[in-house]
Design brief:
CATH class of chain B: Alpha Beta
Strand content of chain A: under 5%
Strand content of chain B: 35-45%
CATH architecture of chain A: Orthogonal Bundle
Largest sheet of chain B: 4 strands, antiparallel
Largest interface: A-B, 20 and 9 residues
Radius of gyration of chain B: 17 Å
Number of domains of chain A: 1
Structural class of chain B: alpha+beta
Distance between the termini of chain B: 9 Å
Number of strands of chain B: 6
Order of helices and strands of chain A: HHHHEEEEHHHHHHHHHHHHH
Shape of chain B: elongated
Largest sheet of chain A: 2 strands, antiparallel
Number of domains of chain B: 1
Strand order of the largest sheet of chain B: 2-5-1-6
CATH superfamily of chain A: Ammonium transporter AmtB like domains
Oligomer: heterodimer
Distance between the termini of chain A: 59 Å
Number of helices of chain B: 2
């Protein structure tokens, strides 16, 4: 008797997407090839950002931890892809339950077919939308790893990936982008993931840094980046991929995708310059790491605003982002937490500015489906943006804190002291990054 | 027989090697080392962290010579490796008990 439900589950799993194979041509003709190709390319661009992030982070840790760091990003591609397919997509974008989560109707991608799905993807196959969104779900938890770099147990990390995605990413994605989501209903604007990706991960990173604790020897100044060239390669790949991250969030090819693409570039460039200049003035050198960090700050900041603001607004947003995030990363010194790779300062603080900046600079001229911000005559949007920010901050922080405390008690979060000294590469993976 | 060790600035290596070759030195061993004396290190800044790098890259040359040639070797290295700025390095001379050529089994002066 147990076989039957299992077989029907299998059938529904394998049947997902083929339910509509026999549909008449009229339904299929709504698929726009331009929109679909841009979305698929964007999905591939965003996918590349995960190995890009791996290199960005990898170069900033010590030699003995380079593989462990890269692996934390890379393996998310494996774990979250399956989580997304099994139930993550359904929780995030499925039929609404109480405005806070989706149900499991689409578990196993049941009903997620190859026809357009008007709620999300009016002119592209539903699966294209699903796979595009998957890449966001993959990279977001990987961002958090920067906060606990060089000391987290791999086994526990795999479980953390699944739990965090289920209890933090999927609900927040639903609030902001899912039909029926409460932030979406309220009119909160987040074009490509300021709230969903950067604030959620940035704030969770703060919780993680506090629970996991500092690296052994932190404060003795013995852990400079081992390979800034690797970090720059990662930053370049991230910048490139971000065109898909923001441009693809138009879910269509055309003017809105163009606008998002353009403002992405402007904010990245402005962020790179302003961080470099501020650091030059304050510390005496225009560092390469600073320019790369500023670009990433500009990119994280423009993400929520990318489909709602114009190019000159984007320059302003980026210039502020570079300087703001440069100062924000010094918070950890003030408060004494070891956010090793500055996830809080760059993503958490940066994107908070970005979501609020959307409340200032949004204009219906760029996107008539958006709203006007304070500088364009509407004062109500800023309040909605602020409320969204606070909610995501509080929820991400509290739930991540609980998750990590539970995992610490059951599985342990940190590697042993001995393993932390010999390094993650050998202790967690039995490999060495470099054999010269 | 004497062992001469010279810690010098890395960019001086080629010049020193050429000069020693001209006075008949047929071989040497070099290693890349780090060190400091009166030459201070430098500071590097990565995001919010400052790192004082005390150690400076140097090259160490080790030679074994007969006693007679020692003054000439010292004078050559001193002359060629000098820049006049702090960090030029030092030369150390110590006695050597035995030298053996592995291929032939020669010992003493014949092995140098």
């Amino acid at each position: 008797m147990k076989k039957i439900p299992f077989l029907s589950l299998l059938a529904s799993l394998f049947g997902a997407g083929f339910a509509f194979a026999g549909e008449p041509a009229a339904a299929l003709s709504k698929t726009d090839s331009g929109d679909t190709s841009w979305l698929l390319i964007s999905a591939a661009l965003v996918m590349l950002m995960t190995p890009g992030l791996a290199l960005f982070y990898g170069g900033m840790v010590r030699t003995k931890n380079v593989l462990g760091t890269i692996m934390q990003s890379f393996i998310a591609l494996g774990v979250i892809t399956l989580q997304w397919a099994f139930y993550g997509y359904s929780l995030a974008f499925g039929p609404d339950v109480g405005h806070v989560i989706g149900n499991l109707d689409w578990a196993g991608l049941r009903g997620v077919g190859l026809d357009p799905f008007p709620d999300y993807s009016a002119t592209v196959p539903h699966q294209a939308f699903m796979i595009f969104q998957m890449m966001f779900a993959v990279i977001t938890p990987a961002l958090i790893t920067g906060a606990f770099a060089e000391r987290f147990k791999f086994k526990t990390y795999l479980v953390f990936l699944i739990l965090w995605s289920t209890f933090v990413y999927d609900p927040i994605a639903h609030w902001v982008w899912g039909t029926g989501g409460w932030i979406r209903n309220l009119g909160g604007l987040d074009f490509a993931g300021g709230l969903v990706v950067h604030i959620s991960s940035g704030v969770s990173a703060l919780a993680a840094a506090l629970v996991v604790g500092k690296r052994k020897g932190y404060g003795n100044g013995l852990m400079p980046p081992h390979n800034v060239t690797m970090t720059l390669l990662g930053a370049g790949i991230l910048w490139f991929g971000w065109f898909g991250f923001n441009g693809g969030s138009a879910i269509a090819s055309g003017s809105l995708a163009t606008s998002a693409f353009v403002v992405t570039q402007f904010s990245a460039a402005s962020g790179a310059l302003s961080w470099m200049i501020v650091e030059w003035a304050r510390r005496g050198n225009p560092t390469v790491l600073g320019a790369a960090s500023g670009a990433i700050a500009g990119l994280a900041t423009i993400t929520p605003a990318s489909g709602f603001v114009g190019p000159i607004s984007a320059i302003v947003i980026g210039l502020v982002a570079g300087a703001l995030c440069y100062y924000a990363i010094n918070l950890k010194n003030k408060f004494g937490y070891d956010d090793s790779l500055d996830v809080v300062g760059v993503h958490g603080v940066g994107s908070t500015w970005g979501v609020l900046a959307t409340g200032l600079f949004a204009t219906k001229v760029v996107n008539s489906a958006g709203n006007n911000g304070l500088f364009f005559g509407n004062s109500s949007l800023l309040g909605i943006q602020a409320l969204s920010v606070i909610s995501v901050w509080v929820y991400s922080f509290v739930v991540t804190l609980i998750l990590l405390k539970v995992l610490d008690r059951t599985m342990g979060l940190r590697v042993s002291e001995e393993h932390e000294i010999t390094g993650l590469d050998t202790s967690q993976h039995g490999e060495t990054g470099y054999s010269f | 027989m004497k062992k001469i060790e010279a810690v010098i600035k890395p960019f001086k290596l080629d010049e020193v090697k050429e000069a020693l070759s001209k006075i008949g030195i047929k071989g040497m061993t070099i290693s890349e080392v780090k060190g400091f004396g009166r030459q201070k290190g430098h500071t590097e800044v990565y995001r919010s962290a400052e790192y004082k790098i005390d150690f400076v890259a140097k090259v160490k040359i080790e030679l074994i010579t007969t006693d007679e040639i020692v003054p000439q070797v010292i004078e050559t290295i001193e002359r060629v490796a000098k820049t006049g700025k702090i960090g030029d390095g030092k030369i150390f001379v110590s006695p050597v008990e035995e030298v053996i050529r592995i291929r032939t089994g020669e010992r003493g002066r014949d092995a140098i």
